[in-house]
Amino acid sequence: MSDNHPPVPPQNAARPTTGKVVAVTGGARGIGRAIAQRLARSGARVAVGDIDRNAITQAGAELAPAIALQLDVTDPTSFAAFLDGVESDLGPIDVLINNAGIMPIGRFTEESDEITRRILDINVYGVMLGTKLTLPRMLHRGHGHIVNIASLAGENPTPGMAAYCASKQAVLGFTEAMRLEYRESGIRFSAVLPTFTRTELIAGTRAPLGLLAEPEDVAAAVAALIARPRRRVTVTRAAGILATFNKLTPRPLGEYIARRLGVHSTFVDHVDRDARRAYDNRLNQH
């Protein structure tokens, strides 16, 4: 089985996630929420963390028996308190899913310094901080799994997403380095690379329909990855194949195909800012 795609378990297979304690950052919305819901239904003991107080309150009510706790992934005190709360309520963490991330779009020169720093703080430092705080707990027990939600944008840079692409490339490099550094420890490290996913992160854009994934697609891939740990998976299969093809083709041809698909203009010239207003406003509130 390739590293690039999640295996399909037999219909009657036992659920290997049953009883596992799983912590999901950025779990009140979008991909994180779908992951939490999928794993909870599969018998995992799930905790979600999110910075949005209102969203986390709603998630706590709707994702029960999963627990929901407030979390700022850029704040060491907040992250440590989150991990303590998870272990106090559910037990030692078996799986940490570093999912929290933001995706402002537009030309890089029009992006404020504050937003650029927030992208790096949340998308990169948040992943590193969560790993640094959780890993000693797992090493003490001799087992654990850290799953980092990266993106195919980390391997296929996209105009209009310069800082986001850089952040996801950093996550990929960090995940691989950690996997090698702790390969004999009993701790597994994995990266998940979704394509454009139908969440509010792509609100106001015309992302190519053939490349879109649903949050549930990513959640299914994560569940399969927990069942059978591997270094990386891509979502969707078609997007993963296209990304591989793009890397193997001469650069001018790959860029021509991307332009024909509209990828090079989607996040620069064809953005409905009114449709993105709610998402952009929330980014500026936290």
What this model shows, in words?
With 286 residues, the protein is an alpha/beta fold. It has one domain: 3-Layer(aba) Sandwich (Rossmann fold), CATH 3.40.50. Helices cover 48% and strands 13% of the residues. It has a 7-stranded parallel β-sheet, with helices on both faces. Helix 1 (30-41) packs across helix 6. The termini are far apart. The relative contact order is 0.14. Mean pLDDT is 90; it is low at 5-14.
Strand content: 5-15%
Spans where pLDDT lies below 50 across 5 or more residues? 5-14
Q: By helix and strand content, what is the structural category?
A: alpha/beta
How many helical elements? 10
Name the strands of the widest sheet in spatial order. Answer: 3-2-1-4-5-6-7
What profile does the largest beta sheet have? 7 strands, parallel
Gross CATH architecture: 3-Layer(aba) Sandwich
Keywords:
7 strands, single chain, Rossmann fold, 10 helices, 286 residues, alpha/beta
How does the SSE layout of this entry go?
Blueprint: E1 21-25, H1 30-41, E2 45-50, H2 53-62, E3 67-70, H3 76-89, E4 95-98, H4 113-141, E5 144-149, H5 162-181, E6 187-194, H6 215-227, E7 232-235, H7 237-248, H8 251-261, H9 263-266, H10 273-285
Parallel strand pairs: 1-2, 1-4, 2-3, 4-5, 5-6, 6-7
Helix pairs in contact: 1-6, 3-4, 4-5
Question: How would you briefly describe this protein structure?
Answer:
This protein is of the alpha/beta class and 286 residues long. 48% of the residues lie in helices and 13% in strands. It is built from ten helices and seven strands.
